[in-house]
Specification:
Blueprint lengths: L12 H18 L8 E6 L2 E10 L3 E10 L2 H4 L2 E8 L4 E7 L2 E2 L17 H19 E3 L12
Antiparallel strand pairs: 1-2, 1-7, 2-3, 3-4, 4-5, 5-6
Length: 151
């Protein structure tokens, strides 16, 4: 006979804050001129990544992260909206793919079949993805060769 006692889910706030702190630093390394520039494009393997500023306020900035890839088997299309809290130096997922305002904790099971720690998982995924971009990304710049002609 199985013991059907369930442990209550406890959100690890310290871990979530550490992830959000590190994500803030990662995004600033990927997009250091976000205060003066509205978007930045990167190439990560076959994927094209665009980081865009959606809204700027005194203490927060909302970014949209969009990825398109020729290799869609793993993660072809990615749409994430993140909010940077500059006073706290934290970056948090606001919307992931088509889901907006994900709660920090869910009862399980639920109608959307979110995991109990859905928000934490999304922020951990963002951490891995941003780190992957830092390690493998390169600027998507068009290089034009100038030719000098003698007249």
């Amino acid at each position: 006979m199985q013991n059907s006692t369930r442990q209550l889910f406890k959100l690890d706030l310290t871990e979530l804050h550490a992830i959000c702190d590190a994500n803030y630093l990662r995004l600033k390394r990927l997009f250091p001129d976000y205060e003066n520039c509205n978007s930045r494009e990167l190439l990560v393997g076959a994927a094209k990544v665009r980081l865009s500023v959606v809204e700027r306020c005194r203490y927060t900035t909302i970014f949209h992260i969009h990825q398109q890839s020729a290799e869609s088997r793993w993660l072809g299309l990615l749409n994430v909206e993140v909010r940077a809290y500059h006073d706290a130096r934290m970056l948090e997922v606001g919307a992931f793919q088509s889901y907006r305002q994900v709660s920090a904790r869910y009862q399980y099971p639920n109608d959307q079949m979110f995991a109990q720690d859905e928000k934490s998982q999304q922020n951990r995924f963002l951490a891995d993805w941003l780190e992957h971009c830092l390690q493998n990304g390169r600027a998507a710049l068009d290089v034009v060769a100038a030719t000098v002609t003698d007249t």
